[in-house]
Amino acid sequence: MQFKIQRRHLAKRLQQAIQIISSKTVIPILSGLKLELNEQELILTGSNSDITIQAKIPQNIDGEDIITNIQPGSIVLPVPQLPDIINKLPEDIVDFTVDENYKTVIKSGKAVFRLYGQSSDEYPKLSLQQNKSQLSINIKDLKKMIRQTVFAVSTMETRPIFTGVNMILENNQLTFTATDSHRLSRKTIAIEEHQLDQTNIVIPGKSLQELNRVLDEKDEHVQVSLLNNQIIFSTENLFLSSRLLNGQFPDTNRLIPQDSETTMKVHVNEFIHMIERAAVLSNKEQNNVIDIETEDNLIRISSKLVEIGNVNEQLNAISIEGEPIKLSFSSKYMLDSLKTIDSDVVDIYFSGPMKPFIIKTPNDPHILQLILPVKTF
After folding, report:
1. What percent of the chain lies above the pLDDT cut of 90?
2. pLDDT the model gives residue 61
3. According to the model, what pLDDT value does residue 199 have?
4. Spatial CA neighbour of 198 closest among 220, 177, 167, 219
5. CATH top-level class for 134-253?
6. Widest pairwise Cα distance in the chain
7. Alpha carbon 98 to chain centroid distance?
């Protein structure tokens, strides 16, 4: 196996493929990166058995030869040393030569590295074949859906289903919902055309975080297909497959209050900064709980840290309608929601001191955030 390749293209695709590779895998060869070369492209494959990423580098892009001196073959090389080497090479062209014992020489300028590779024959045959049942999503829309929901998944494995995002496709509406039982985030977009049947699945949150990281917005659209117990996302030069979570995601509709006693409209940035200041003197081990009260059009935020001190601050709301409120909430949960909602103004609907409150935005009726208050008063 031998080839020369432009370093910037290799470095970019390496970063996409290696992040999921772990040295703690129970399948030793998965601790390395598989490189497979043919006359048309170089394929980089990384996997942790739950998630697989394939990044492809075409031999020619827009009439320019990216890969030359091609002698096809395949090998598995060690990680993380390989990307560190590529990033630090002195010149733009990288020369790879692999001998029959899988010893790999990497040259660039006067720099010469030698790595001990492995045969790719032992690398699991991971199916990334798409089936005919699929849908197409605008990448910007998909990345926004992930960003606005995945933060609310549970990090606790005691209830594995809550570590994933519930994806429902129904009546040309695609909905992502995530909850850790203390908060909930939901985002819906319209899908014009698809070949998927009605779908209700749960995708691991870690898989969606990786997908959000590796997707390149200039590809414009990603194809989504289901195969056995896997979901596959693909663009022209990138494939990501993930196992799905087993189990039934709970019906979260029943958690959402249908009426409210108080509606508060606030400027997002002002409210964020106010909460961030109050969180400084709150208990990190208890989700940085702070208190909120309203009177007329005035919001009061306060918190205290025993033996350290306390903070009190006031803010004029754009409007407050309904009954005065007095409750406590996790500033972390509130900040997570406000920082992903993409709006200058939000409406917050309170249904009572111990009932969930809802955050919505006037310019996007298809996003909803829900947070449970904390009992302190």
Report:
1. 80
2. 94
3. 85
4. 167
5. alpha beta
6. 79
7. 36
- From residue 356, alpha-carbon distances to 253, 317, 327 in Å are 12, 20, 11
What is the spatial distance between Cα 346 and Cα 351, in angstroms, rounded to a whole number?
Answer: 16
pLDDT tens track for 207-236: 999 999 999 877 789 999 988 889 999 999
The residue ranges of every structural domain in the chain are 2-122, 134-253, 256-371
Q: What residues form DSSP beta bridges with 230? A: 227, 243
Q: Which residue type occupies 258?
A: Q
Model pLDDT, residue 198: 65
Coil, helix or strand at residue 6:
strand
d(CA 19, CA 209): 11
Q: Does domain 256-371 have CATH number 3.70.10.10?
A: yes
Percent residues over pLDDT 70 in the chain: 97
Tokens of 143: 């990345």
Task: Say if residues 45 and 52 touch (Cβ distance below 8 Å).
Answer: yes
Q: Return the CATH fold of 2-122.
A: DNA Polymerase III; Chain A, domain 2 (3.10.150)
Distance CA 101, CA 120 (A): 12
Residue in the structure block whose two tokens are 């909602």: 341
Give the model confidence (pLDDT) of 135-185 as tens digits.
899 999 999 999 999 999 999 888 999 999 999 998 889 999 999 999 999
Geometric angle at alpha carbon 320, from 317 and 325, rounded to 5°: 105
pLDDT for the residue numbered 130:
55
Q: What is the CA radius of gyration of the chain?
A: 25
Structure tokens at 218: 């200039």
Enclosing H/E stretch for 9: helix 7-18
Which pLDDT does position 23 carry in this prediction? 85
Same fold yes or no, 2-122 and 134-253: yes
pLDDT at residue 128 is higher than 70: no
Q: For the packed helices 81-88 and 7-18, what is the interaxial angle rounded to 10 degrees?
A: 150
Q: Where residue 353 falls among pLDDT bands split at 50, 70, 90?
A: confident
Give the SS3 label for residue 331.
helix
